[in-house]
Design brief:
Helices cover 93% and strands 0% of the residues. It has one domain (3-118). It has helices spanning 3-44, 50-118. It starts with a helix and ends with a helix. It is built from 2 helices and no strands.
């Protein structure tokens, strides 16, 4: 595979991972809200045993820990992706500067040759 293909493949995998984690985070967050709501309802119902309400809170808390892990990994991947973008932008700017300097030097050299030929 050429460097371009490897770079594109890497970017696609990174973007796919970010998208997947974003979808997982959204789904887990919705589930977390439902679990919190269910635990709150358990606390209001007088017929529910205290340990059942505590278990509902524990389930929500455990899911909250999983959400924290997913969020941490998502932040890591986004930072990695942003670093990659910054590097690509810097490389492109260096290339553009080199290219424009090359064109400027070619123009100057042509003008010098024209001046020499006229003399």
């Amino acid at each position: 595979m050429s460097d371009k293909h490897v770079e594109k493949f890497y970017d696609e995998i990174l973007c796919k991972d970010i998208k997947t984690l974003t979808e997982i985070l959204a789904s887990l967050s919705n589930s977390y809200r439902l679990l919190i709501g269910g635990a709150e309802e358990f606390n209001r119902i007088t017929l529910v045993h205290r340990h059942e309400a505590e278990e509902a809170i524990d389930r929500a808390d455990e899911l909250g820990d999983i959400i924290d892990d997913v969020e941490c990994e998502l932040k890591r991947l986004i930072k990695l992706y942003l670093r990659e973008l910054v590097c690509k932008i810097e490389i492109q700017q260096l290339y553009n500067n080199k290219h424009s300097i090359g064109n400027s030097s070619n123009i100057i050299i042509k003008e010098l040759f024209e001046d020499v030929e006229e003399d």
